[in-house]
Amino acid sequence: MVRPDYAVISVSDDNSFGHPSSRTLKRMERLGIKVFRTDQQGMITLISDGLNWQIEPGLK
C-alpha cells in the first residue's frame, strides 16, 4: 500500500470537472497528506540534491 506524505494536484481555478473532489481532499487530510495545489499555490517546484528533496510552492 502506498502511504504518501505529500500530494501535488495540477488543476486550474475554473475547471469544469470539479477536480479535486472534496471527498478526495478530505481523505488526504484524514490521512495526514500535505497537499499542494497549482490552482491555489501557483507553480509547484520539487528540488532534489540526489539524496534529499523539498517542495516549494510558487505562492506562499
The tally of beta strands, per DSSP, is 4
- The arrangement of helices and strands along the chain is EHEHEE
Radius of gyration: 13 Å
Percent helix among the residues? 10-25%
Structural class: alpha+beta
Keywords:
two-stranded parallel ribbon; 2 helices; alpha+beta; 60 residues; single chain; 4 strands
Structural description of this entry:
The chain has 60 residues and is of the alpha+beta class. It has one domain (6-57). The chain is built from two helices and four strands, in the order βαβαββ. The strands form two sheets. Strands 1-2 form a two-stranded parallel sheet. The protein has a two-stranded antiparallel ribbon with strand order 3-4. The radius of gyration is 13 Å and the shape is flat.
Topology:
Elements: E1 6-9, H1 22-30, E2 34-37, H2 38-41, E3 44-48, E4 53-57
Parallel strand pairs: 1-2
Antiparallel strand pairs: 3-4
Could you give a quick summary of the protein structure above?
Helix content is 22%, strand content 30%.
